[in-house]
Design a protein that fits this description.
Strand content: 5-15%
CATH superfamily: NAD(P)-binding Rossmann-like Domain
Order of helices and strands: HEHEHHEHHH
CATH topology: Rossmann fold
Helix content: 40-55%
Strand order of the largest sheet: 1-2-3
Shape: elongated
Length: 177
């Protein structure tokens, strides 16, 4: 749903924008497009898909359909207070990570549309995006450190059961073998 909804929405509205030679298509990825964590693989994968979709869409609008007046933007908020992070919110707070309110993200999106420019919108610090330029072993250390926050036994799509320690998951794995 996180990626397919973008596809269907663009299919519905882009033809009209092309006729009018104006419009702005904006999608929300998240910093998860740059930093995949344990327990969030499905979510992070869709956010990488949103990033690739908007990069490609921007190129097609400009170079295939010759509609430079149609703007495209993708937004990368960090952790945002929604029901998706309820199961990991305490861990995020213990690590001192910032959790934004949805209104902050919405305001950044609104301001970007008013500026009338295409682009990538980093709400808060774009540090997670910079991780991709680091050596692979440093990226892995950062992912390991952050994955300890996500201590649920489900993907974020069905997150609900929290564990008290990171060792419970390892104990369950050993008992299955």
């Amino acid at each position: 749903m996180n990626i397919i909804s973008h596809w269907y929405t663009v299919q519905e509205f882009l033809p009209g924008m092309m006729v009018k030679q104006k419009g702005h298509i904006m999608g929300v990825a998240s910093m998860a497009a740059f930093l995949s964590l344990a327990g969030m693989v499905d979510y992070c994968t869709t956010k990488v898909g949103v990033l690739a979709f908007y990069e490609g869409l921007s190129q097609e609008i400009k170079h295939r359909f010759y509609c430079p007046y149609i703007k495209t933007s993708v937004v990368y908020p960090p952790w945002t207070r929604t029901r998706l992070i309820r199961a990991v919110e305490n861990g995020l707070q213990r690590r001192g990570l910032t959790i934004l309110e949805p209104e902050v993200v919405a305001e950044a999106m609104f301001k970007h549309i008013l500026y009338g420019q295409s682009g990538q919108v980093f709400v808060g610090s774009p540090v997670a995006a910079a991780i991709r330029v680091l050596p692979a072993w440093i990226q892995e250390l950062i992912r390991d450190w952050n994955s300890q926050i996500v201590n649920v036994h489900a993907t974020t799509a069905v997150a609900g059961k929290e564990t008290n320690t990171a060792t419970e998951g390892a104990t369950e794995q050993k008992s299955k073998t």
